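User: I'm writing a tutorial on reading structure tokens. Could you give me a worked example: one chain, its sequence, then its tokens, then a sentence or two explaining what the tokens reveal?
Assistant: Sure. Here is the example chain.
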Amino acid sequence: MTRRGSTRSRIAGISFAAFLALCVSGCPSGLPPHTTASQAADAPLARKLERRFEKTGARVGFVAVHVESGRRVAIRGDEVFEAASVIKLGHLAEAAARVTSGRLELSERWKLTRAGRAAPASLLNEFDDGLEPTERDLLDLMIQRSDNTATNHFQDLLGMDAINARFRSMGFTTLELVGRIPDNDPEETQAARWKGLKLGRMTPRETAAFYERLVKRQLVDPKTDALMWRILSGQNSTSRLARLVLEGPKTAWAGKTGTMRGTRNDSGVVSTPRGRFVFVLLANEIPDGRTDGVNAAMGEAARLVVDAWSRELPELPPPPPDGPFPRTLPPALPRTEMTPLEVSEEMPNHERVYRDADKLFWQLYAKAGGDLADSCLVPMPSSWWEGDDGWKIEPLSSIVLHHTAIHDDEGCIRFFQDPASLVSAHFLVGLDGRLYQFVSLEHRAWHAGSSLLHGARRLNRTSVGIEITGDGNFVPFTKAQIETTVKLLGVLVAQLDVKTPFIAGHQHIAPGRKPDPGAFFPWNDVVRRGLELAEKLKPSVPPPSEE
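And here are its predicted structure tokens:
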């Protein structure tokens, strides 16, 4: 039995190898100048597709690729078309890349408001204000339901320049986002704002290459590509290219549609027992009343290609599933320490802990009686510190106190120094009262996690994180720790104008999940004395810059 199975495998392998050799033969002759095929045998197929598209009266660009063999056919593959919602592939790519790099959390929530609603089509417009979908929910809605409100959210969050830079970083020169979907309000001007609007530009060939590389996990990186594939695989619309090729549980579709006046687009990958077929069809300049004919032609074109090629393709095993989706670790940093009195540009990574806001902090800390000669700057890897202003900390409005549950300062520093911890704080208060700074006040530390404080979420963005060595549920903090914490609170309240209700513990912003700084932390004494100190320091705080 084993011998016969091996023989069948060898025959299938030889057959498929012969097929691959056939696929790399020269391009057929006798085709229109805007039509190409990877082998002469596909010339009749290409002409048949041409005739079918001519019947629609539209300008049609079409590319089909069999991923495993490289076999392909293209009609107007290098001509530029209006992308419509297929351009949302760029939003997805940039968002997914930020997820894997740790700059976007899929669990973060966004609140739906009247001002945030986009013009139809938008499923989110059916819900009341106050709905709080997660970023993952919004990605699913943007791709699978082509939700315009979710799309505008990501376009505003990521920025058009970053989305187009992502296209260029992937090597695409003809994929470009050029417009934004109109807001829902005022409704009476929507028609005027839609008129003549262009959302994006793309060619069928580069769009097909996007999918082909995505299937091979060679587009951005394997983890980012896996996330994108999962989202695209939930596509709700299968009435165009996929309409006639989804046959039972062994076939599946992943892709993105696009619709605007005079434009009907579809793109994606149909997975079959004989491999994966990439299809891109972009139809512009559709005569009024003939959109149904274009949609019908899409399904027929995909069916023609699958039937023609599958006759010569062996059945293949399914591709292995993607593994778990780990978060990319930040790069490790060399261990460096220096006091605020000694810091200089020669200190490695000094810009991560000593910027303009930090210089003012240490000036005020000295006025509060803090010992700068005994304080310490130690840059940490796990934080949002890049020069991209969009990922610096937002205006600070809260202070969150934690305990480390590690009982010595050196153990705390080693833990935060390890990139795999994916944790950081702005400050650490040591056992003997020594104050350590790990992250600049101009950057976000990773300390709050899933959190809520007086209606504010995503507290990493808007809060200063303070760690105190020890476990406040088992052992009281030292007197020196309490005195340093009072000084630290006083300086931060004075410098940042933090209001009393926004001074909280991790136990308050994540109740039931976090227990720190714990039962032994003397809240009333620390906060009262910190506020009194802040009033004394406020005259030393310069007025905000007008820039």
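What the tokens reveal: Residues 393 and 442 are 6 Å apart (CA to CA). The two ends are 80 Å apart (CA to CA).
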